[in-house]
């Protein structure tokens, strides 16, 4: 149980902590990567503490079982899994108001897969890579359709402009000309919207391509490292339009994960 400390005690505690940290970092002269990792961890932790004040989980998208997220699991101690990794959401009921979420971390398939396949580890195959690739193909198809729509609308604009010029040269009634001008304005506005949507879809496709370049095809679920994290730690997706939104493992993979959870953490096996 905590107790209230004086300002002097807090200041002294802070100074002692800074000395301990400086001594720790100075002791890793032959392991600069360790120093760098600890520094990143401290900065991340400070950032999350600041975010806590205004964080609202309801501002994030709704997450469903089987969906993939990328989350910062923090600084690992010993054999704990840490750092930025893909994870599978395993929470059964996950309200958008719930500030935490339960996940199973994922790791990529190494060259020697036998070293990664300990008890509690499940080979998921290429299901995540395939899911994101399928999403990319759908987005590309939507881009193609939007581009064709823009071409058609541009042609309509040219035809409507030519029609207006013809009416003006023929001294057509002003009301009819105004009606055609309003029609042209509507077509132009719709075309602008389609162009903007095309631009957004192209950017979305580029982000997916970049994500696929960083992603290994094969994935392993570290079921033995199942954990509950704050949604503040979620890096992607935060919105429904983000790269990993609606990317998920297959139903078969999710059944395998559920079975492994029962095997590891319950007394009764499923019959």
Would you kindly provide a written description of the structure presented here, covering whatever features stand out?
- With 271 residues, the protein is an alpha+beta fold.
- The protein has helices at residues 7-26, 32-52, 127-169, 174-214, 251-265, and strands at 68-72, 84-89, 100-108, 121-125, 219-222, 227-230, 234-236.
- The chain contains 5 helices and 7 strands, in the order ααββββααβββα.
- The mean pLDDT is 88.
- Helix 3 packs antiparallel against helix 4.
Top CATH class of the largest domain: Mainly Beta
Q: How many β-strand runs?
A: 7
- Low-pLDDT stretches are none
Q: Per DSSP, what share of the residues sits in E-state strands of 2 or more residues?
A: 5-15%
Helix content, binned percent: 40-55%
Largest sheet: 7 strands, antiparallel
State the order of secondary-structure elements, H for helix, E for strand: HHEEEEHHEEEH
What do the pLDDT scores average to?
A: 88
In CATH, the architecture of the largest domain is Roll
> Which radius of gyration do the C-alpha atoms yield?
27 Å
Assembly type of the chains comes to: single chain
- Kindly report how far apart the N and C termini lie: 45 Å
Shape: elongated
**Tally of individual domains:** 2
Enter the CATH topology name of the largest domain. SH3 type barrels
């Amino acid at each position: 149980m905590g107790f209230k400390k004086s300002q002097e005690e807090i200041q002294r505690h802070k100074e002692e902590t800074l000395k301990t940290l400086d001594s720790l970092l100075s002791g890793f002269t032959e392991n600069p990567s360790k120093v760098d990792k600890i520094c990143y961890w401290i900065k991340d932790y400070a950032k999350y503490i600041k975010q806590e004040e205004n964080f609202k989980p309801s501002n994030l998208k709704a997450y469903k079982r089987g969906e993939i997220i990328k989350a910062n699991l923090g600084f690992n101690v010993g054999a704990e899994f840490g750092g930025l990794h893909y994870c599978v959401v395993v929470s059964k009921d996950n309200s958008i108001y719930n500030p935490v979420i339960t996940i199973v971390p994922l790791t990529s398939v190494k060259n020697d897969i036998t070293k990664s396949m300990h008890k509690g580890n499940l080979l998921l195959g290429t299901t995540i890579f395939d899911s994101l690739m399928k999403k990319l193909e759908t987005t590309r198809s939507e881009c193609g359709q939007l581009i064709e729509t823009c071409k058609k609308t541009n042609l309509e604009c040219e035809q409507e402009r030519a029609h207006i010029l013809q009416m003006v040269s023929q001294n057509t009634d002003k009301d009819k000309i105004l009606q055609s001008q309003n029609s042209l304005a509507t077509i132009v506005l719709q075309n602008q919207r389609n162009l903007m949507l095309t631009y957004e879809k192209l950017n979305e496709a580029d982000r997916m391509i970049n994500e696929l370049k960083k992603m290994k095809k094969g994935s392993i679920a570290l079921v033995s490292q199942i954990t509950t994290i704050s949604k503040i730690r979620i890096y992607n997706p935060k919105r429904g339009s983000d790269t990993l939104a609606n990317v998920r493992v297959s139903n078969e993979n999710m059944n395998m994960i559920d079975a492994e959870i029962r095997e590891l953490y319950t007394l009764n096996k499923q019959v």
